[in-house]
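Quick start: read one record
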Amino acid sequence: PQIKTFVLADPTSNKTPFSFLPGQFLTITFERNGKKVMRSYTIASSPTNTSSCEITVKREPQGIVSRILHDESKLNDLLDIKAPGGRFVFTGNEAAEIVLIGAGVGVTPLMSVLRYLVATK
């Protein structure tokens, strides 16, 4: 119950307005009490899915953005999202074999890698 996956899509198109590589993250911004709060969440979906992307977020008791996402966001809400960033990427061309090790919500970048490799290799 403390972890939710959010499917993000552009309401005006059947394609996300950005591309990304497995392992990259999105930065989400909300305004609270006149201040901007930002948090970054790793994309868990494969870049081969161009109609939407997924982030998986653990609700942290003191986490402002995670609590907004879990407790206040609802279907069809518009979010302020910065384009993907990060250099921890894996496309399958770096090595012939890999081992993916992760735990908890930290598995999200590995899910993107795994889903991408399944779709392309």
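The mean pLDDT is 93.
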